[in-house]
Amino acid sequence: MDTTAREELKDVAEDVVETGQEAMGGFKKAYEKGRDTVKRYASQARDTASEYAKEARDKTEMQIRDKPFWAMMIAAGVGLSLGLIFASVINSRREDY
To answer: Which of 20, 23, 77, 91 pairs with 49 at a CA distance of 20 to 30 A?
Structure first.
């Protein structure tokens, strides 16, 4: 291989390395931009969910204060229903043995 061919090969190799470094810089910028966008949307979603949860909590508290008897009856009904479901599951497992 003569000197001219080696120099051309060296120039091509340097161009490839330079192009690869530029591409990596572009990928890094795109990654950082995407990461920042995801963080921003996640923050907005968290804030919105927090607002909805606070509104739901406030409405529930208001309903309980306005109608305590019905709140107790609903809680008792839910408790009874869960108790029956758990009792049914436990009994079905005992029958399997």
So the answer is: 77
Q: Domain check: are 17 and 50 in the same one?
A: yes
Residues 56 and 75 in one domain: no
Is 0.70 topped by the overall pTM? Answer: no
% of the chain surpassing 70 pLDDT: 95
**Domains held by the chain: number:** 2
